[in-house]
Fold:
Amino acid sequence: MMLVGLTGSIGMGKSTTAQMFRDEAVPVYDADAEVHALYAPGGAAVGPLAEAFGEDVIVGGAVDRGLLGAKVLGDPAAMKRLEAIVHPLVGASRQAFFEAAKASGAPIVVLDIPLLFETGGEKAMQAVVVVSAPAELQRERVLARPGMTPEKFEAILARQLPDAEKRARADFVIETGQGLEAARDQVRKLLATLARRLDGPGEQGEGSGDGAPHRS
Structure:
């Protein structure tokens, strides 16, 4: 089973691209969705996060991501405490996903992980896909989100590797700045390339945004 890491900076269209993989019958593990479940009422992270950051981050039995974010953004020590709690819980849910995918006979699975490079997770992948778009479009998308401010956007970007570095380290790049159908076509070409890899060794070339390998 080939493990494919899917990542990209905020506002690049990663979640939409992940759905495109699902539409092609590829199992996708969504790390952010798992965090949402952990933060929901009854979630495994609620108690530990209340103990670590205070009961005021809990609203209606769930972790309020906005309140929690206000306590950790810009504070490296607080971010490390958060990650020490959440990462092991996410790891357990990811293992369950692997087991289910293996049992189903899926040849390829995609792991949608926003901070894949930042956490060193790319080392466990057979291929890494970076979703990218022009910086102007990224900013426009992000600032259109409810509650987003330029300051908050910049703080989030500060935690993430620059887009240019992610692209340089990627095996594949999906460009989302030219519309949904163009991105979907790139996803299909990428999957065809991966299927050939599974069938046997093949030629690899440079490419970007067209389903071709971005690096060897």
Summary: The two ends are 20 Å apart (CA to CA).
